């Protein structure tokens, strides 16, 4: 089952790379939304448990507020990227009037969400609600903050997205198969108590295999302009044509 789903994920990942920069960017946003949704569900389960035991009063807009915070942050982050992208590429200047006030809209979204958060504060729930706010903010920082410039990387060439992501994928694959074939046959010591199925052979084997893969794959992918050329426009049709002078980095 794991091999089947892994193969399907690799096929889907390669299809996204073939589809183009715009679809890769949309997929990143989609994945971030799914991750945040999972974290919202985890927190809501804790809230529901406290409500069931009558340890906490009902809090209005519990999940709505979290999504408002996420939406405000996402609009600021991606709106800023889109504004810069449109400013740098003449063919996208048609969108500049709409994006000129992106910072103001983001500010008002933040203020509105903050005011709504304060208005929903209820006596006896302050500690939980402040903890909830901290949970939401840190979730946004981890999900959106560390990916702040991912769309800049995508626009500058799919290589800068494909290569690091492919290393993560292949490292996991190599760790699984190295552990399956060699696990506890060379080093009979526990690797990690939190994950007893992990082995030293899987860890070290994946490290060596990933280093070899990275050296070979980087040279292979750098041959193709589809991965190295920056996107000078956002095209909605699949696999738009790209052409550019080879960057010295890839020579």
TrEMBL record:
**Catalytic reaction list:** a 1,2-diacyl-sn-glycero-3-phosphate + CTP + H(+) = a CDP-1,2-diacyl-sn-glycerol + diphosphate
Give a GO molecular function annotation for the protein: phosphatidate cytidylyltransferase activity
Record-listed E.C. numbers: 2.7.7.41
Q: Which sequence ranges are marked TM in the entry?
A: 12-35, 56-78, 98-121, 133-151, 157-182, 203-226
| Top-tier EC class | transferase
Q: Which domain of life is it from?
A: Eukaryota
Under what name is this protein listed? phosphatidate cytidylyltransferase
Query: Its pathway?
Result: Lipid metabolism; Phospholipid metabolism; CDP-diacylglycerol biosynthesis; CDP-diacylglycerol from sn-glycerol 3-phosphate: step 3/3
Q: Has the keyword Transmembrane helix been applied to this entry?
A: yes
Task: Please give the Pfam families that the UniProt record associates with this protein.
Answer: CTP_transf_1 (PF01148)
Topology in the lipid bilayer is annotated as: Multi-pass membrane protein
Key word S-adenosyl-L-methionine present: no
Family statement: Belongs to the CDS family.
């Amino acid at each position: 089952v794991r091999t089947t789903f892994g193969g399907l994920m690799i096929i889907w990942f390669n299809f996204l790379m073939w589809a183009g920069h715009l679809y890769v960017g949309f997929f990143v946003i989609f994945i971030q939304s799914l991750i945040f949704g999972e974290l919202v569900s985890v927190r809501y389960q804790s809230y529901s448990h406290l409500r069931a035991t009558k340890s906490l009063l009902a809090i209005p807009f519990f999940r709505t507020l979290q999504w408002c915070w996420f939406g405000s942050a996402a609009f600021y982050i991606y709106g800023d990227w889109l504004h810069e992208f449109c400013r740098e590429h003449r063919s996208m200047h048609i969108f500049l009037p709409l994006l000129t006030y992106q910072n103001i809209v983001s500010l008002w979204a933040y203020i509105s969400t903050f005011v709504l958060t304060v208005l929903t504060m209820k006596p006896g729930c302050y500690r939980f609600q402040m903890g909830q706010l901290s949970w939401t903010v840190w979730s946004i920082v981890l999900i959106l903050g560390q990916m702040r410039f991912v769309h800049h990387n995508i626009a500058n060439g799919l290589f800068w997205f494909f290569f690091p992501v492919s290393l993560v994928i292949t490292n996991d694959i190599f760790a699984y198969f190295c552990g399956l074939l060699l696990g506890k046959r060379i080093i009979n010591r526990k690797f990690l108590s939190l994950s007893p199925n992990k082995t030293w052979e899987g860890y070290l084997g994946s490290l060596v295999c990933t280093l070899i893969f990275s050296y070979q794959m980087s040279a292979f992918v750098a041959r193709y302009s589809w991965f190295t050329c920056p996107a000078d426009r956002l095209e909605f049709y699949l696999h738009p044509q790209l052409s550019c002078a080879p960057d010295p980095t890839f020579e």
